[in-house]
Amino acid sequence: MSRINGPVWKTSRRLGFSILETGEELQKRAYAPGQHGPTKRVKLTNYGQQLREKQKIRYMYGLNERQFYNTFIKASKMKGVTGDNFLGLLESRLDNLVYRMGFARTRRAARQLVNHGHILVNGKKVDIPSFIAKPGMVVEIKEKSRDMKAINEALEATLNTVAFIDVDKDAKKGTYLRLPERSELNSEFNELLVVEFYNR
């Protein structure tokens, strides 16, 4: 099983971007890590900007380089705008949907729930985090796992969910309604730079 390990907060500070999408990583020290403190940032080249945007999205969704690139290739072969297709595929991953539905507080925790077999898709157990769900599919917590403390705490902490997902917190079940629109996703990164990075 391949996954990204390492300190999330330090990575967020290095990229100047909240990987957890909460902003809490940057509240205390909103500058890059290192012994010299808040030094002036060096101006990035075009390649550096493209690389940084790629790393922002890759770390946010928790993919390694091969998974990320393969997802991009798949998106580039689909009809429509490559950047939108790319983000649509990333949002359709099962671990991301579990996170978006509020069953886990982070994507890492959501990935673990899927890996450990706590998640059903259309009534069948799926333990592959990279499984691409299609609109209309129902994602739910397995009956034996519905009393897990971590899941209940995550649901209590989740106040709102995104519009492209419908969630029944009591039944611990959610439906993936449709592909997300770009305006519904994080506005702090630019997926067009990722397209330029891989097409250079």
How would you characterize this protein structure?
There is one protein chain. By secondary structure, this protein is of the alpha+beta class. The chain has 2 domains: 95 residues, Ribosomal Protein S4 Delta 41, Chain A, domain 1; 91 residues, Structural Genomics Hypothetical 15.5 Kd Protein In mrcA-pckA Intergenic Region, Chain A (Roll), CATH 3.10.290.10. 40% of the residues lie in helices and 8% in strands. It has a 5-stranded antiparallel beta sheet with strand order 2-1-3-5-4, with helices on one face. α2 crosses α8, α3 crosses α4 and α4 packs across α8. The relative contact order is 0.14.
Give the key terms.
Ribosomal Protein S4 Delta 41, Chain A, domain 1; Ribosomal_uS4; 200 residues; 5 strands; Small ribosomal subunit protein uS4; Structural Genomics Hypothetical 15.5 Kd Protein In mrcA-pckA Intergenic Region, Chain A; 2 domains; rRNA binding; alpha+beta; structural constituent of ribosome
Quick structural overview:
This protein is of the alpha+beta class. It has eight helices and five strands. The protein has helices at about 10-15, 45-60, 65-75, 80-90, 95-100, 105-115, 150-155, 190-200; strands at about 120, 125, 140, 165-170, 175.
**CATH topology tier name of the largest domain:** Ribosomal Protein S4 Delta 41, Chain A, domain 1
CATH superfamily of the largest domain: Ribosomal protein S4/S9, N-terminal domain
Shape: globular
Question: Could you name the ranges where pLDDT drops below 50 across 5 or more consecutive residues?
Answer: none
- Helix count equals 8
Class of the largest domain in CATH? Answer: Mainly Alpha
- Output the radius of gyration: 17 Å
Total count of domains: 2
Kindly state the percentage of residues in helix: 40-55%
Class per helix and strand makeup:
alpha+beta
Q: State mean pLDDT (0 to 100 scale).
A: 85
> In percent terms, what proportion of residues is strand?
5-15%
Number of strands: 5
Strand order of the largest sheet: 2-1-3-5-4
Distance between the termini: 30 Å
> Which CATH architecture of the largest domain is right?
Orthogonal Bundle
Question: What's the story with the biggest beta sheet?
Answer: 5 strands, antiparallel
Helix-strand string = HHHHHHEEEHEEH
Pfam families: Ribosomal_S4, S4
Keywords: Ribonucleoprotein, Ribosomal protein, RNA-binding, rRNA-binding
GO molecular function: rRNA binding; structural constituent of ribosome
Subunit structure: Part of the 30S ribosomal subunit. Contacts protein S5. The interaction surface between S4 and S5 is involved in control of translational fidelity.
